[in-house]
């Protein structure tokens, strides 16, 4: 796409300043090697596979998609449907090697390109294409790297095939889909894979997914009426979920189903082998108020409850837990008794300083727990080491920013995203080694003015134009998300680049994390239980008023609001319910009726529609159509399989019937990700709309 604005053009060419950045880094088990993905430069979108030998500090290209498949287009539409949808779930949109899996020593890595399966020997940098039964998806090597499991056409295959399955799948042909994560798991529950090798390579643990009871969602491309619509099974709130089972499939032909009370605990949020003789799996009930860690016997399929976490609201996912540590001890999430912090427990006993808001358990390093956590400032995240035997926490990072970590053996990769940029350094045997980043330097150094406002302590940020002169009143642009599970006010520099651009167009850009968003406290997050809209509106309005007192240059008589997904929902909600405060809205991909959204996300917060009909109705925007009195722009991609375009179309239909003028922009072929420069094109269109609406 062509952009006339220099910033938008640069953002589009550089993949929002991500092309050339290393990602998906993984250490070898001994910590001496690092495998990662990166393109060759800031305007090269094709991600390649690289290996860094930490002993010699030599970096090598080990797999290049351009050389392997020279004629490939890189168009996501050309990918097999399963891989395209997984990329959508993972928010991956750069072409090339989207993901890979490797042996523990990183000697072998496997990946797919346009459905073709490749295996790379990282020691001699030789890549070969492996035979498959059809377009391949999610390949995983066994411990030796000599055999690869992959999914094709809904069946789990091995290459080379074992003697008992020559040319056929390892999974039975029973009408189900094998070896994949269903929509609810991949989109909402944090599990994106569906098969796991036993450590000795003699069996595979595989998910069996039966979606026959689910309603079908259809996607037609109006720009190409000659093409048949695409459809897939979608778990709609209040309706049936996929039936998910776990089976052990041995290479010598035996099949064993793992047994637990799947009617009560239908969600499998995590699974894997603890050794050749034990499987660990985490399951949750439908409302996610009870989460069990189970140990399973792979020979008999029987399961034993190892830990149980319960919550009257919902059990928030804490990545890295529950888990078993050395000696069989169980690590679980555990909020502090006063509800002010997200913490940990070891065998049920509180662990670590109670002041930390634990966000992720990365793993173990030197016998201690490696975690990412926040303290008093929710916008910052730091990396800590916690002594599991009662010691304190050692902070490994300094300064404002979002700091994260990856570890392997005794090696540690620290990524520090600060107002000065993004820096990666590896701690290896007492030395620090930089990890090369070829990304475009960020055009703006943005230091948002952060504050906690109102008696709720709402995190807020204000960004002014770089040329702003005090005393010059500015229209306000509320750039919002506001939904559970995502933080908007964070000291991560890339997310402020476009907000600075918006400010330079003549706005004071305001961002607020209302109650219901994460990383402030469990109590803060749970305030939206059984009702989304009321708390979000109350907090956002209160924050604007408080910021208006602190910042006299904010013209609260001209307030526009923009957002995407839940942020799009809030933008439309704002002008429908509070036109006295919000004067124009650009609403992208808004879920206008949560009765049409998915089970795992919606029911976690709102419960079942049949049990909370008043809450669902109160959060639905369709009935508010007649109240619209402010300019509203609805934007929706017609290939959006997360928030179906029906959400915007139904609201538009209701607005037309009520005689309320509005604008509707539909985008053929565009998904929820707005990849390929679409986001930048939309920003230019939104700018014209908001300037006119707030004039």
Task: Describe the model.
Helix 1 (6-13) packs antiparallel against helix 12. This protein has 695 residues and is an alpha+beta fold. Strand 41, helix 11 (646-657) and strand 42 (663-667) form a beta-alpha-beta unit. The strands form 10 sheets. The protein has an 8-stranded mixed sheet, with helices on both faces. 17% of the residues lie in helices and 34% in strands. It contains 12 helices and 42 strands. The protein has a domain at 449-694: Alpha/Beta hydrolase fold, catalytic domain (Rossmann fold), CATH 3.40.50.1820. 49% of the residues are buried.
Largest sheet: 8 strands, mixed
What integer is the average pLDDT?
Answer: 94
How many separate helices? Answer: 12
What is the CATH-assigned architecture of the domain at 449-694? 3-Layer(aba) Sandwich
Helicity range of the residues?
A: 10-25%
List the helices and strands and how they pair.
Layout: H1 6-13, E1 23-27, E2 33-38, E3 48-53, E4 58-63, H2 65-68, H3 81-90, E5 101-102, E6 108-113, E7 116-121, E8 126-130, E9 137-141, E10 148-152, E11 155-159, E12 177-178, H4 183-189, E13 195-197, E14 203-210, E15 216-219, E16 230-233, E17 243-250, E18 255-257, E19 267-275, E20 278-284, E21 290-296, E22 303-310, E23 323-324, E24 330-335, E25 342-346, E26 349-351, E27 357-365, E28 368-374, E29 382-386, E30 393-395, E31 402-408, E32 411-418, E33 421-428, E34 431-434, E35 449-453, E36 458-463, E37 474-479, H5 497-504, E38 508-512, H6 522-525, H7 533-550, E39 554-564, H8 566-577, E40 584-588, H9 599-606, H10 613-619, E41 632-637, H11 646-657, E42 663-667, H12 678-694
Parallel strand pairs: 37-38, 37-39, 39-40, 40-41, 41-42
Antiparallel strand pairs: 1-2, 2-3, 3-4, 5-6, 6-7, 7-8, 9-10, 10-11, 12-14, 13-14, 14-17, 15-16, 17-18, 19-20, 20-21, 21-22, 23-24, 24-25, 25-26, 27-28, 28-29, 29-30, 31-32, 32-33, 33-34, 35-36, 36-38
Helix pairs in contact: 1-12
